Amino acid sequence: MWWTVAYLIVFTVLAWLFFQKLTNRYEAEITRLKQDQNTIETVTQSFENTLTEQRTSLSLLRTECDRQLEMIDKLHNEVRHQKGRAASQATLKGQALEKWAPFVDHPNIDTDWKIENWSFLGSPIDYIVWHYSTKKEDNLRDGKVVFLDVKAGKSGLTTKQRRIRDIIEAGNVEWRTIRLD
Fold first, then answer.
1. By C-alpha distance, which of 149, 151, 150, 146 is closest to 168?
2. Which of 9, 76, 123, 181 has the fewest CB atoms within 10 Å, i.e. is most exposed?
């Protein structure tokens, strides 16, 4: 009988040691889980703080981007306005130069063309210059009709002007007399 009591005591001690070891393991696991939870909370808080900072930075960048786009739009409008003014100035300059063309020296203007023989058309060709003589034989040999367009700066001929130029250069020019009664 004392063996039974001894087995019971040994079994109780072993059970107590086993449960004590399990309790220590669970307490260690609980401590580790609490540390992990604290780490997760710290990382989460850090992430949330970083996310808030990033959102603030993004908001500031968007505001700056909007401001820059607004400035670019204003500059674009100003450039367009300036181009319009420059084009208008060039047009006005060209129109003024057209009027003065008979009075200027230029390699493409013959010095023997008389100013009174310049006829201003304006559009699509600026001038027709009648270079002729009072003698019929001189006229047939040296006389000519010059279609003249005056350009300023880098301006070029319009499509209509180029077509007219091509027709004249091809020799497709004729004389007609119309009598109206």
1. 146
2. 181
What pLDDT digit, counting tens, does each position of 123-141 carry?
A: 899 999 988 888 888 888 8
DSSP β-bridge partners for residue 146: 129
pTM here is 0.51
CA 77, CA 71: separation in Å to the nearest integer? 10
User: Which residues make beta-bridge pairs with 145?
Assistant: 130
Check: CB of residue 140 under 8 Å from CB of residue 119.
no
> Counting beta carbons within 10 angstroms of the beta carbon of residue 66, is it exposed (0 to 12), middle (13 to 18) or buried (19 or more)?
exposed
Cβ atoms of 128 and 148 within 8 Å: the answer is yes
The Cα–Cα gap between 132 and 138 comes to 8
Q: Which of 95, 142, 100, 91 is nearest to 122 (CA)?
A: 95
The Cα 155–Cα 175 span in angstroms is 31
Q: What is the pLDDT of residues 38-78, one digit of tens each?
A: 999 999 999 999 999 999 999 999 999 999 999 999 999 99
Asked if residues 61 and 53 have their Cβ atoms less than 8 Å apart, the reply is: no
* Secondary structure (H, E, C), 65-80: HHHHHHHHHHHHHHHH
